[in-house]
Amino acid sequence: MEEAVLTPPTGIRHDTFDTLLSVVIKLDLVELSEKPMGSSLRSPLEQQFLRRNNNRENLDRFIPNRSAMDFDFAHYMLTDGRKHTENPSQISPSRLAYRKLLADALNLNRTRILAFKNKSETPNHSIHSIPKPSTPIAKPPRHIPQYSQMVLDAPDILDDYYLNLLDWGSTNVLAIALGRSVYLWDASNGSSSELVTLDEEDGPVTSVSWSPDGHHIAVGLNNSHVQLWDSTAFRQIRTLSGVHTQRVGSLAWNNHILTTGGMDGKIVNNDVRVRSHIVETYRGHWQEVCGLKWSGSGQQLASGGNDNLLYIWDRSMASSNTRTRWLHCLEDHTSAVKALAWCPFQRNLLASGGGVIDGCIKFWNTNTGACLNSINTGSQVCALLWNKHERELLSSHGLTQNQLTLWKYPSMVKITELTGHASRVLFMAQSPDGCTVASAAGDEALRFWNVFGPPEVAKPARKANPVPFAHVSFIR
């Protein structure tokens, strides 16, 4: 019987083949030596030891683990892997970096041929599937219609900068004063009705303001009186007299307190629940009070006047017996201050706007009285409204464009300008949901703008199970 002769495959040298063959023979001998010759020849303690050794890897550092070896890689390293056809000094750095990245991706940076234990598997990513850092997706810009969505006639509306003739109540009913009459327009169904028409000796109407409940409305008159009306029953509840000596051009509610500002420069807090309604009197302005706004907390009151002054009053400092001292007297404006708006998302932040000569929007910290910023708009600032859903501010203006301008806060970058009125936009009011703005001007037009848009709908939070395995039915 002839002896079998092993010859190397084509392309492999004899010395390389002999080396691999010797390694294989040694591994086979090791495996044969590890196989038990029979369970009957070993004690129970030895059998338990062998089973424990066979259940885990062979961790002997002198005996290679054949199952953990990569023979293709060993063949490559023993034949072609060590050949250098190029001089490393002549290879560009970018090419070297590419080769290193390729070797890392293909796991070719190994230097050992023999393996003594199994290694944990590593994820095999291709070069083109290397994860990239995620970048935040930019929020798309909100579409703002450039034209008013509806226009209503407002005949006989007074073209008077110092009055406040428009207000939108919490029940979605808009009130507007036209000459000696007050009209109500229900935004939910588009119906309109006349609330009251005054006599010539009492009129015209100089201010209107809804109570917080949206069912009662205060009407300031040219004869210095203030009337309270029930909008549901269309009847007058009471008249507040003896408060001012001249017309009442500004009104502001703080729960059951109605604050009135008159042409006599006085500011009076009236408790509408009691017969003796005068609670406090604020004295500081020496000309007509044309702007009044309570803060959201109801603690601070901002007042602007034709004397170019802006006052901040604090209720904790008010007294019915003595002259009330203001918290801050701000003199930065150079023209009448009518436009006032408290920020809905930042406490103690107030925006104010000046008249023709001034034309500035200023931002104040009402705790310290510091002016945080001032923007020259180039035209008379008639009214200001904050967006309830975004950090934006809307201003209405007079000459020369009679526009509404939407600003991004706090950068005060113009987002857009809305035009359509032919006269200065004296009055603005915001719908209860904060989406729509109504503007009235001396051109006897009442326009509605979808400038703020609907609020973002928050995703519903996932309900957590109150107890573990709450979704599993229990067996009773």
Q: Please tally the helical runs, counting DSSP H or I stretches of 4 or more residues.
A: 4
Proportion in β-strands: 25-35%
What kind of sheet is the major sheet? 4 strands, antiparallel
Overall shape: it is elongated
Helix content: 10-25%
Distance between the termini: 79 Å
Structural class: mainly beta
Detail the poorly predicted runs: none
Mean of pLDDT: 84
Radius of gyration: 42 Å
- The strands making up the biggest β-sheet line up spatially as 1-28-27-26
Care to describe what's here?
This protein is mainly beta and 476 residues long. It has helices spanning 14-34, 44-55, 71-78, 93-106, and strands at residues 150-153, 166-168, 173-178, 181-186, 192-197, 205-210, 216-221, 226-230, 235-240, 248-254, 257-262, 266-271, 278-283, 289-294, 300-305, 310-314, 328-330, 337-342, 349-354, 360-365, 370-376, 381-386, 392-397, 404-408, 413-418, 425-430, 437-441, 445-449. It has a four-stranded antiparallel beta sheet with strand order 1-28-27-26, with no helix packed on it. It has a four-stranded antiparallel beta sheet with strand order 2-3-4-5, with no helix packed on it. The chain has a four-stranded antiparallel beta sheet with strand order 6-7-8-9, with no helix packed on it. The model has no long low-confidence stretch (mean pLDDT 84).
Keywords:
476 residues, mainly beta, 4-stranded antiparallel β-sheet, 4 helices, elongated
At a glance:
The mean pLDDT is 84. By secondary structure, the protein is mainly β. Helix content is 12%, strand content 33%.
